[in-house]
């Protein structure tokens, strides 16, 4: 088994009760929180931005916030998110003309840098940036909505990266839950995002424990 870290995506939680939901997921055993930001342009949906993150930060001191930035022009929100207390900024390869500059700016702002790739994007595009990145996030759905079907055909991208880079943090996001986590971990993912399968589970603590026991075998 791997030493996987589990991160809930709060997208399908009660967003009117965001701080309570986040605390509940931390208490249930999450390693960190995956916060989905959507701009209605890069993806056909809207969520929230750095003003909300800034209000959330003091309520969850010490909790690691990974911002999953499903936005066009991701350079735009780097300073705002750093100032709001975000720990990691994951932008999309498809969303910027200059990923290297984006990564540099994220680091200068004091955050960890992640880069996501959508299902249609070839995995090779990340190779020039590996040394600059803290994490590659492999999407196993087309981003925009929770609760979509897991796309197992994206797993070879994770395998490809894991074979080349033993120590790289590789995230997986989209349709991951107790029934799909095994194949993600087997492929080599170590940062596991889980949305609706965890949020809608009647016992979140049990769900996290179940997922952990599957990958720790
Ligand atoms: C979707 C988001 C995901 C999403 C995952 O665009 O990036 O983080 O919330 O939700 P599930 O696990 O339901 O696919
Ligand atoms: Zn996400």
From TrEMBL:
The answer, when asked if Zinc-finger is one of the entry's keywords, is: no
Residues binding a divalent metal cation? 34, 36, 68, 173
What GO MF annotations does this protein's record show?
A: D-ribulose-phosphate 3-epimerase activity; metal ion binding
Where along this sequence does the record place binding of substrate? 9, 68, 144-147, 175, 195-196
Q: Keyword Manganese, does the record have it?
A: yes
Catalytic activity entry: D-ribulose 5-phosphate = D-xylulose 5-phosphate
Q: Which Gene3D superfamilies does the record cross-reference, listed alphabetically?
A: Aldolase class I
Going by the UniProt record, its keywords in alphabetical order are:
Carbohydrate metabolism, Cobalt, Iron, Isomerase, Manganese, Metal-binding, Zinc
The annotated active site, in chain numbering, is 36 (proton acceptor), 173 (proton donor)
Q: In the Enzyme Commission scheme, what number(s) does this protein have?
A: 5.1.3.1
Q: Which cofactor is recorded for it?
A: Mn(2+); Co(2+); a divalent metal cation; Zn(2+)
Give the UniProt record's GO annotations in the biological process aspect.
carbohydrate metabolic process; pentose-phosphate shunt
On cofactor binding, the record's note says: Binds 1 divalent metal cation per subunit.
Give one Pfam hit by family name.
Ribul_P_3_epim
Q: Which class of enzymes does this protein belong to?
A: isomerase
Q: Which InterPro entries match?
A: Aldolase_TIM, Ribul_P_3_epim, Ribul_P_3_epim-like, RibuloseP-bd_barrel
Q: How does it assemble?
A: Homodimer.
Q: In which family does this protein belong, per the annotation? A: Belongs to the ribulose-phosphate 3-epimerase family.
Free-text function comment from the UniProt entry: Catalyzes the reversible epimerization of D-ribulose 5-phosphate to D-xylulose 5-phosphate.
Q: What is this protein called?
A: Ribulose-phosphate 3-epimerase
This protein's species is: Lymnaea stagnalis (Great pond snail)
Give the taxonomic lineage as stored in the record. Eukaryota, Metazoa, Spiralia, Lophotrochozoa, Mollusca
